[in-house]
Predict the 3D structure of the following.
Amino acid sequence: MWYAHNPGRRARQLLGDGAALLWIALWAAAALAAHRLAQLASQPAQHRPHIPLLGSSVDGALRGVAHAGDRIVSAAPAPQSPAAAQALAVLGAAALFVIPVGLMLTVWLPRRIRWTRQAAAAQELASTEDGRELLALRALLRPLDELAATAELLPAAPDATSDQDQDQDQDQDQDQDVDPDLDLDVPPDPGPGSLAKGWREADPVVLDALADAELQRLGLRA
């Protein structure tokens, strides 16, 4: 999996990949032009070919630079051999391409690969109950503001005050049938702390909410 399900996240990934490919193409064209320019400078003026992929104005400008290079080379104490000039041209063009493209890849490629691995692992975990519990645990480690936003998505818990009002209308014999382990002190608006409690108690609603939040953080479909 290389792209997210979320439209916004997928659009950003597409823009980033397009910018990376454009960066590579630009430096490839620059390296090719530099190599051709070095070849022009190493040849006699009457044997210099037209540079492909460039307009006449750019070609004329490069030829002017090559003529200036002729004057510099003619003033040198010893001329270089054609083989050495060719090797220098290849090395210079390779360096012009490898250095900027390599720097870009060291920043862009690890992030893309890391997201791809995380997305694939999250999708695999989401297919099982134990895996969704692990996703929920990972979601609990997110910042508190993200946990608070996840807690707001939970269904509202019953108000303990309203439960007490209903209990007053019942007989005490019916109150004795209530499970004493039942927790009636749940606040009407649960916060991040209720998520941890729900995870410990394996509450399916809380586990699903946390797992879905982790999937959405990665831009995946919950």
User: Anything to note?
Assistant: The chain is about 70% helix and 0% strand. The radius of gyration is 34 Å. Confidence is low (pLDDT under 50) at residues 75-79, 157-165, 182-188. The CA atoms of residues 51 and 58 lie 9 Å apart.
